[in-house]
Design brief:
Layout: H1 2-14, E1 18-19, E2 31-42, E3 45-52, H2 60-68, H3 77-89, H4 95-98, H5 105-111, H6 117-134, E4 135-141, H7 145-160, H8 179-184, H9 199-212
Helix pairs in contact: 1-9, 3-6
Length: about 210
């Protein structure tokens, strides 16, 4: 799996890189993103720390804005995981409230009286500052939803199965209360250790990425 993971990192590191603040018009409407984090390396390249996509049509730009800009943890599991790690790192008891999902009216009615929203806003701001200051990303176009989801799954599986691609000792994810994040070295818990790329499908991925540039 190390050979395929090395190829994935080579391809991803060759793509155009975006940092905050980024120009949305330079990002495809439909596709996949890979995130890199300062201080993280694998296969002599910057290490991929998260892979993601979208299900709705033409929503890749919006998805990235939800991660980097919109201060709402319940609309971005990536933001929620960063907040979890920051709070856990400092043994902050607010973590149990950060876990509450307030998307639905029923949840808001049930939990709103328990939550210090001024403090939560402060944590959201810390999450934004951390993400904007420490992460960069690359994207490539995949128009078909089923293909996007398949490629995303294989990318995550390939990296999570690699024995050489490990986080640094200082990686914030080491403080995550989510064991799967700590173990995998990735800011995600789904699609880990599933079906990875093989040599043949890596070649197809390389051609797709070359075509999307």
């Amino acid at each position: 799996m190390s050979s395929e993971c090395s190829s994935v990192h080579r391809l991803a590191n060759e793509l155009e890189r975006h940092k905050f603040p980024f120009e949305a018009s330079n990002i495809p409407l439909n596709g996949i993103y890979v995130l890199f984090q300062k201080g993280e390396y694998g296969h002599q390249k910057e290490r991929i720390v998260r892979i993601g996509t979208h299900t709705g049509e033409s929503r890749l730009r919006l998805r990235l804005e939800e991660h980097f800009l919109n201060e709402n943890k319940d609309r971005s599991i990536f933001r929620k995981n960063i907040g979890r790690a920051l709070l856990s790192q400092h043994n902050d008891p607010f973590l149990k409230y950060w876990e509450r999902n307030l998307v639905t009216k029923k949840a808001k009615d049930k939990y709103s009286s328990l939550i210090d929203f001024d403090y939560q806003k402060n944590i959201e701001n810390q999450v934004s500052q951390y993400i904007q200051g420490n992460f960069s990303f690359a994207t490539f176009e995949v128009k078909n939803k089923e293909e996007r989801l398949d490629i995303e799954s294989k990318l995550i599986a390939t990296i999570s199965r690699c024995d050489e691609c490990k986080p640094s000792n200082d990686w914030l994810g080491n403080s995550s209360p989510k064991e799967k994040i700590v173990k995998s070295g990735l800011w995600q818990v789904n699609e880990l250790y599933k079906t990875p790329f093989d040599a043949t499908s890596i070649g197809k991925l390389e051609r797709r990425i070359a075509h999307s540039k």
